[in-house]
């Protein structure tokens, strides 16, 4: 089989840097001269210790995290975090604020509701089909945290500035834009991100938690559901998702050593997204669905004039080596996910294809 690699615009699991995949391939049978694959090594060995410690150290360096922050790896995806957050931080007298920007934040709210927790939805863009990020939000004075989703993978919207919560810690689902830009960490008490968008394979979720959040967390919970179990055991209370953590380590190394860190990758991500949005702005055939000031740099969602044209577009794109352009089943339309690993070359070529397709199918 001589099948080539395609230009992969999948939303998640998504493209990983080619260099990372090649490094995994080269080391797969004999990791670090151990005579074993990374998938065969004990998580209690010094080999794996080095991997997880390196991943944590790189995450801390990239985000300039000080000693208050702990970097954890937890299974169950971002979806388990929807439930663990209210479980750990809200006792019966407490309340939290939620911003609803659709899909994922809606699911996070549902998990607080299922547990009978007190919460307020302080802002929502539902009335406009979640096509924008709400601004000028009033927060509750007594909220333990403010939960928001930094980038809505499905609706193609993104917070370009985080709200001033007057010192209330932000708990943020960053699954689809973590490590895509630099962050002012002062606002965040907890960040979580399922790995399969911008970090590595599915099966692990990175959680960054500040000490004061750990200090106020409920200890009266099953071991696997409390943050302190992970923070006190370097994420190895039980067997962690070793291969996922290893891949994340390589991706973080790639960001640091090949891409030059978060400011550089942010600049690159801005250029990539601008190319695509500017091109669409120059045609009447492709229409971005998110409002201009809320457009995501990671997930570019758009429509064609008809659903039949969209269907044909996705099929023709695949024939030409561009995969993953179908919009999420809940919203339809088209979507190009252009995470860190998407190259400028892939976007240049996608635009050429889009031009030709528009010409031929007007
Ligand atoms: C994909 C995604 C999720 C769900 O992640 P799982 O790891 O599948 O639970 C949650 N939030 C956002 C923003 C996502 O993009």
Number of helices: 10
CATH architecture of the largest domain: 3-Layer(aba) Sandwich
SSE arrangement, N to C: EHHEHEHEEEEEEEHHHHEEHEEH
For the largest sheet, list the strands in their spatial order. Answer: 2-10-9-8-5-3-4
Cα-atom Rg, whole angstroms?
Answer: 21 Å
Helix content: 25-40%
What is the strand content? 15-25%
Q: In brief, what are we looking at here?
A:
The protein has 362 residues and is an alpha/beta fold. The protein has helices at 18-27, 46-62, 77-89, 104-114, 211-216, 227-232, 242-258, 262-281, 307-319, 344-361; strands at residues 7-8, 69-74, 95-100, 118-124, 143-149, 151-152, 157-158, 170-173, 188-194, 205-210, 287-288, 299-303, 322-323, 334-337. The longest helix has 20 residues, at 262-281.
Textual characterization of the structure:
The two termini are 36 Å apart. This protein has two domains: 22-258, Aspartate Aminotransferase, domain 2, CATH 3.40.640.10; 260-360, Aspartate Aminotransferase, domain 1, CATH 3.90.1150.10. It is globular, with a radius of gyration of 21 Å. A seven-stranded mixed beta sheet has the order 2-10-9-8-5-3-4, sandwiched between helices. Strands 11-12-14 form a three-stranded antiparallel beta sheet. Strands 1-13 form a two-stranded parallel sheet. It has helices spanning 18-27, 46-62, 77-89, 104-114, 211-216, 227-232, 242-258, 262-281, 307-319, 344-361, and strands at residues 7-8, 69-74, 95-100, 118-124, 143-149, 151-152, 157-158, 170-173, 188-194, 205-210, 287-288, 299-303, 322-323, 334-337. With 362 residues, the protein is of the alpha/beta class. Residues 12, 77-79, 104, 149, 153, 173, 175-176, 194, 197 line the site of pyridoxal-5'-phosphate. The site of pyridoxal-5'-phosphate has 12 residues, from helix 3.
